[in-house]
Amino acid sequence: MKSKWDLKSEDLSVENPMKIALVASLFNPDITKELVRCCLYTLEEYGYSSDRVDVLWVPGAWEIPQVAKKVADGDYNTTVDEIDALIAMGCVIKGETPHFDFVAGEATRGISKVARQADFPVIFGILTVDTWEQAWARASEAKGNKGREFAKSTLHMINLYRQNLK
Q1: Looking at the domain that runs over 17-164, which CATH code has it been given?
Q2: 156 among known catalytic residues
């Protein structure tokens, strides 16, 4: 079953945008780079110019929570008060060994721990799939790129935090 939601443009526009940190995995680069590209395009479409989005590339999904924590703790070149949101983005494809379970599980646990402690929205944008074809079906712009959805989720959450969760 495919879920889809759409918000009005005014629901996604953010007044006085600050910074978004996008922590992305270099592993499975054909998938992740397409997710990042569409995410950045969507963020720019709604007012986050390229100088307002810092893309921090890490080797793999395992490393995403480490950098996400540094950003959330203010151990980064932008103060925590200047961060609107953090997006964790990557792709873990199941192989023939249990390695997938360890990487996907620990990345999920690490990012959710950061999300519970951060004073800004943290978006989970890591694809966990069985095959490259499943990953591409979620990353391909022709098939409904999830990077665009991650961007829209981010914008929605920024507005929710600003308007209702002070």
Answers
A1: 3.40.50.960
A2: no
Strand ranges in the chain using DSSP code E only, listed in sequence order: 19-25, 53-58, 83-93, 122-129
Provide the residue-wise pLDDT of the chain in tens; the chain has 166 residues. 344 566 677 778 777 878 999 999 999 999 999 999 999 999 999 989 999 999 999 999 999 999 999 999 988 776 677 899 999 999 999 978 878 788 888 999 999 999 999 999 999 999 999 999 999 999 987 877 899 999 999 999 999 898 876 5
| Catalytic residue chosen out of the listed positions 7, 79, 99, 105 | 99
Task: Confirm if 43 and 89 have CB atoms less than 8 A apart.
Answer: no
Distance CA 63, CA 111 (A): 10
* Phi/psi at 5 (5° precision): -140, 150
Domain chopping of the chain, boundaries: 17-164
